[in-house]
Structure formats: structure tokens, C-alpha cells
Specification:
Layout: H1 8-20, H2 25-32, H3 36-48
Helix pairs in contact: 1-3, 2-3
Length: 49
């Protein structure tokens, strides 16, 4: 079975969606393999738009 390819934007939207559903920043960042600093940067950019 081939790997499913996703774009960076799709991953960021999935990340933000989980935060908006009420999951904690630390948990979501851990699942995505990114630092909390990066997580907050992605989330703040989303809120600005």
C-alpha cells in the first residue's frame, strides 16, 4: 500500500482543527512532531487570517 501524500497546508489545517476542537497544544504538537513554539506560530498565523 503506498504512502498517502499530504501537503504542508493540509497538515497545518489538520493541526489547527484539532486545537479548535479543544485539544491541548502540547498534545497536538507531540502528535505532529513539532515544538510548541512552532505550534503557536502556526496557530497565531491562522488566527490572523
Amino acid at each position: 500500500m503506498p504512502w498517502r501524500e499530504t501537503s504542508v497546508m493540509d497538515e497545518r489545517l489538520r493541526f489547527v482543527a484539532r486545537l479548535l476542537e479543544g485539544e491541548g497544544m502540547s498534545e497536538v504538537c507531540r502528535d505532529f512532531g513539532i515544538s510548541r513554539k512552532t505550534g503557536y506560530k502556526i496557530f497565531n498565523r491562522y488566527k490572523e487570517d
